[in-house]
Amino acid sequence: MENAPVDLAGDGLVQSAGNPGFLPIAGHSIARHQLGLALALGATRIVVHAEMLSAEAVDIQHVAEQRGARFHIITAARALVPLVSAEDELIAFAEGFLAMPEEARRLLDEAPGVLALPVEAGVAAGFERIDINHAWAGALRMPGRVVAGLGDLPPEWNPVAALLRLATQARLPLRAVPQGLLDGGRWRLVRNEADAHAAENDWLAQHTAAGHVRSPGEWLAVQAVRRIGPALLHARTRPWLVMLAALVLVLLALGAGWWGRAGLAFALLGLGWVVLQAARLLAKVEQDSLLEATGRLRGGALFGPLLDGALVATCAWRASGSATAQTAWFPPLVLVLILWLFPVVLRDFRWTAWLCDRLLVTLALLVVGLFMPLETGLRVIVVVLLATALAQAHGLFPNRLLTNGT
Length: 406
What we know:
Keywords: Membrane, Transmembrane, Transmembrane helix. This protein is of the alpha/beta class. The protein is built from 15 helices and eleven strands.
């Protein structure tokens, strides 16, 4: 879509508490989410209609220019005309329009047209009526030649409303948006703070859903993200800062293990693993929301081996009673290697996530250490895990994944 200008929002993209376009969702304004969608669709020119250059508009400008797009602010609809040639395509979003990025991208990428909803459901959700049977779904893609008609409309017209009128007059095809997206909260129009609060809760729930049986540690991480994630994201807390907190917990666990407090060390390691999962979820939410790799958690791949190394050290120190013994390292090292092997050889085993949950592993070690020597308990756990793998290999357990979106 070469030189495809995109009007991110309608009139009112200004610095105002009541402006839906700047209401925050998961730490970014709705306009910023729209920008991510526009850039993912190949837009090379971003046009924002605003009364003034606000801080939010400057933020959008910086991101757009960093991604190689040209940025313009216009104060009237007619100012859009010289920015669009007949060979261009234009994508426009309604102010406050928010949809699951991949689904919106798929619908807009198929062909030019006006995205539409059934009129009853669409109007009830706040979308503008197009005709007796349809409501606008908040996004459209149109040929650049149609934009010239803005010059014939009164200057006070809202640019997006004017573009919608021109698109319908040009008889662009109406392309249906599945009503299931609207009913499921995956396609919506945010009009006020109450809408934004509800949308944010749904947004985090949708982006943290999973297609496998969640282990207890994963479940705790998801609940933490859904409850305190909005506050962290609004405070612009980066996922790597949350990962840093997990690293501190691991270092504290190493100190506790060295000084013979194995129970405390296991608890800190389990908590550190949960915090790491929360950091990864926050990174995933940001990446999936903005359709770009901004949420990539650098160094996250190294954290797993570091935590498991701390687990091996703690077990060895606890089992031997000495920080210099050598033979005590073998059982915990075998346990960790098995835990790394399970997801590879038993990828479809529905309880693999449970067996690899470091919170469960550390709690199991903590409990075992209360009733028997830890080294003996480690050997028992290793035998049980190997027996489980063999049983699965011989088909004694159901070989399927369960879906759990909570």
